[in-house]
Predict the 3D structure of the following.
Amino acid sequence: MKNRTAKGYILNTVVIAAILIGALIIQSVFGKNQNFKLILVPSIWQCCYLIILAASLNLVLGFLGQLSLGHCGFMAIGAYAAALISLACQRAGIFTDAKGAAFVLVLVGCILIAGILAALVGLLVGIPALRLKGDYLAIITLGFGMIIVNIINNLPFAGQEGLAKGSAAASLYKNGLGFGTASKVTYLMVALAVTLICLIMMFMFIRSKYGRAIKAIRDDEIAASASGINTSYYKILTFTYSAFFAGIAGALYACANATLSTSSFAFTNGGILNSTFVVVMVVLGGMGSLTGSALAAIIMFFVNYQIKNGLWVKSLTGFLGGMFAYPMLVYAIILIIVIMFRPKGIFGTYEFSLINFHRDIKNRRAQRALQKADRKGGESE
Amino acid sequence: MNEEITPVLETRHLGITFGGLKAVTDFNIKVYEGELVGLIGPNGAGKTTVFNMLTGVYLPTEGSVILNGEVLNGKKTHQFVASGVARTFQNIRLFKQMTVIDNVKSAMTKDTDYNLFSAIFRTPKFWRIEKQLTEKAMDLLAIFKLEGKANQLAANLPYGQQRKLEIARALATNMKLLLLDEPAAGMNPTETAELLECINTIRDRFGISILLIEHDMALVMNVCERILVIDYGMTIASGLPEEIAKDPKVIAAYLGE
């Protein structure tokens, strides 16, 4: 058993290293390709923060079992924190353009600080909010999400217009972290590495006493407290931990986008940074499966990309064409379809794992065969 | 009974009212170390309410609960557990979507002594403690002959084993007093006999006290050293099983006059 765990760790390390090296090779080979620079790289950046966002919400929604609808609020905090701090650093002359060791240091520092700030706000929001459950918690977190966005809106140094106030079209990386096309390619590794580290940190959390405690709370809160689990402590801890990663996702978002505007984090926003969109990703991937969330984030990114840029969508007319003009409608339909036909989501609570994959598939096939035989036996009787 | 020894559990004039309804009044009990006390009474007498007060689920409106000399009024459920009381539930409350072994391990959370840093960075301390936890959990499961099902989902266990797992989970909290709420409910005679054996094993092995609610009179008369009878929230009799069986008040409460 122990041996298998160790083998699993080694295998995962090897595969992660292979992914990063593969990405490096692709980056150096296709670095000059226009499609690579303008389509693939921004897509990867977007996928990266969506994966972190979905997985972090899954901690609260899938593992802790509490419905939070204000997750994008924490992301907004992370995004603004990273952007403002990097801007300040640039104005202080720590770096001049998106190159050099100083810049990388600022970049990493900003990502960390963004996470910590979001976690602090998560703690402040979580202490009162997590006294409530179910629908009431959903309403209050929805409210907090809106409040956070409104507060940022009214900050004298950030504001509704976005950070690039008056200079939205100005060269991107001149505004702190906001990356231009070239920087996005250069720092692609950072996005990938941050995403992997975040996912690993979340896995380690789930596969420890913390994960067991919060899953126990999800399954039965009364029994959990009767088993000596301090339910409020673990709820607030998980909420804070989840907000930390939402903040990091926000920092990546700030890097990947030229301008920041609070409206992209608002609940009324029809884009992808809407808290409901994140909930759809988590439900689609499977509540209680981090790998499912990652997969769902990529799928939903693709759906969103097709709705926005797909030629076939543009050729639609009439009712369908009208529907695709309102992406929220499409997400709602996806959510309804998932709940009707596969309420557990793609993965349910199953976690994809490299070392167990072969065994799991085998087990599943055996199970299916057994069920089939059962059904046939039942019919012949 | 020697008054010098502090009882594991003592309640003084414990009572609770829900609105105008006095669910339990003036409930006094003393459970000493290693004792097995039965709590019986007709349906709706307030037995489970007593359990809920003894574990901090309900806040008593009168009186106090004292565990090992420590007054626990107004504490939360997990603080009750930390002071050494654990319970099972009348209708099984397992962590259904978790594996059998994780059910037991989750009850050890409060005694699991590593922090978030160790967990995330998988320090040697983490591995060492997790290994100890697994061994301890497997030992507990072995008592209930559940070790072969350690990696199954708790929801997939048959009824009798779910009951046993619930007891194993309660034991995992390292308690001194175990409250069993109708452990034999819905079990057939064979399963009840097995349960009886388990109860005796854990008493011998852990030296704990048990407070038992049960409707299966054969079981109660068999294992309990003392019995307390409540009806309409009031204690109507208490004493040795033989005395209780002959007590006219008890017979009246169960069969009517």
